[in-house]
Amino acid sequence: MDNVQLPIQLAPQSLSQPILPGWQLSLFSVNVGASSDAEMEKAAIQKVGSYGKQIGHLAEALEIVIKHQKLLESKLLSEKQKDVLQVFLGDVSTARSVKAKSVVT
Predict the structure, then answer these.
(1) Are 96 and 102 in contact (CB under 8 A)?
(2) Per residue in 40-70, pLDDT tens?
(3) 99: containing domain
(4) Does residue 8 sit within a domain?
């Protein structure tokens, strides 16, 4: 009978294989597409904030207008239009909650 010594190593300690060597992965990538002024868009993102941040500011401003103008109570809007505003306000509220939770953690 042969003696077996433990621990038995059946696989290498470390495995690594480059995938797509020479490529880079960036945490932030902005594809400005067919912009007429890509440099201006890049500067706006750097100075004002990401598109998400800009949309967030617009959403919060629109939330104020909807509530101040009491559009959900307006007789000038159809129920379908009011539903659209309710969904929008729900999205704004959810985004605010997500943002608050990410700041805490």
Answers:
(1) no
(2) 888 888 888 888 888 999 999 999 999 999 9
(3) 38-104
(4) no
